[in-house]
Amino acid sequence: AATAEADRIVSLPGQPKVAFRQYSGYVTVDETAGRALFYWLTEAQSQPLSKPLVVWLNGGPGCSSVAYGASEEIGPFRINKTASGLYLNKFSWNTEVNLLFLETPAGVGFSYTNRSSDLLDTGDHRTAKDSLQFLIRWMDRFPSYKGRDVYLTGESYAGHYVPQLAREIVHYNAHSKNPIKIKGFMVGNAVTDNYHDNLGTVTYWWSHAMISDKTYRQLVNTCNFRQQKESNECESLYYYAMDQEFGNIDQYNIYAPPCN
Amino acid sequence: CTEKYAEIYYNRPDVQKAMHANTTRIPYKWTACSETLNRNWNDTDDSILPIYRELIAAGLRIWVFSGDVDSVVPVTATRYSLAQLKLSVTTPWYPWYVKNQVGGWSEVYKGLTFATVRGAGHEVPLFKPRAALQLLRSFLRGEPLPKS
Question: What does the H/E/C string look like for chain A?
Fold first, then answer.
């Protein structure tokens, strides 16, 4: 409890007054390498003790849940245009739940490693293991969350992180005296299956009139869609489609201009 | 472009102090996405579908949603992938509603709920915050999204 209180955020610079509690800080997940993951907990706006814990992960890989999930999606605050302060998000998910943003793996955002080679060889496996260690040790710091319902949520490449962490938890629970009460997970625009994601993506581009029939046919006939690295012919077709046929749009929101 | 604001705010020393962040003086600026990690990602599963099958069998509640104006991981990609699970339908395809507007479409399978979010990009809660909050509420209750 002492370290939990040490993590208590009294107030963020430029933050409006709020009634809910918030905490942030580090949990060491690997002493040998000196890897520590950074979290930000915004408790539920009412009756936090009776509400579940929802963990939010952004993807990338390499992107920060503090930057996206917390600051422009589901968190209680938005950052104003001059970054001088914060304003309230009335559709924040902490109206319903206790919301934990985790920057994972080490190297993302404020999460760090003392072994710099970690930044060059981290992947799905280490991320899932470290994130499990984080949850186990975080709950030791916040024991009131032990036995509480836990849900994992996330988007994009967290379509990998979230199910992989859920599986780690299920396996951990199988032989733990203190199981983590995971109830489920929810993911959005989630990276799921290379072949079907890639085939579905070029089909979406064609069905939403973003690319020509010719380019669509060439992509489907040239690309393998299964492996990480496509052939040069396929890669150049992708570039042509994006540069010449999509044109100047925000690919994350196709009817909007890009953020320059 | 709001991530630009984050790049400024979270690099402010007073913000880092208030958040107990960067206590070891990390030798690089805080940034929304680490290029180093992204370019050197070591191992990645070709498919997550085997984990879905294992966790459906373990009885976890699984929801998948998709903002339908995202072209990076678009709704068609997710539908092609989920179709491989060959789950039986328990509530056939229907439009779901939020504040008298079509929030998207949804279908409930044995073991998984799928929903689109109309007009939302890659970061669904950024573009459709009210609809995203409805997703959370229905997910937590384990109930299908509202039909009206």
Answer: CHHHHHCECCCCCCCCCCCCCEEEEEEEEECCCCEEEEEEEECCCCCHHHCCEEEEECCCCCECCHHHHHHHHCCCEEECCCCCCEEECCCCHHHCCEEEEEECCCCCCCCEECCHHHHHCCCHHHHHHHHHHHHHHHHHHCHHHCCCCEEEEEECCHHHHHHHHHHHHHHHHCCCCCCCCEEEEEEECCCCEHHHHHHHHHHHHHHCCCCCHHHHHHHHHHCCCCCCCCCHHHHHHHHHHHHHHHCCCECCECCCCCCC
Q: How many A×B Cβ pairs under 8 Å?
A: 316
Low-confidence ranges of chain A (pLDDT < 50): none
Q: What is the rounded distance in angstroms from the CA atom of residue B118 to the CA atom of residue B103?
A: 6
Would you say the ipTM is above 0.95?
yes
Residues of chain B in contact with residue A108, where contact means CB-CB under 8 angstroms, are 34, 37
Among B residues 39-98, those touching chain A with beta carbons less than 8 Å apart: 40-49, 51-52, 54-55, 58, 60-67, 69-84
Q: Residue B25 pLDDT more than 90? A: no
Output the CA torsion sign for A148, A27, A111, B51.
negative
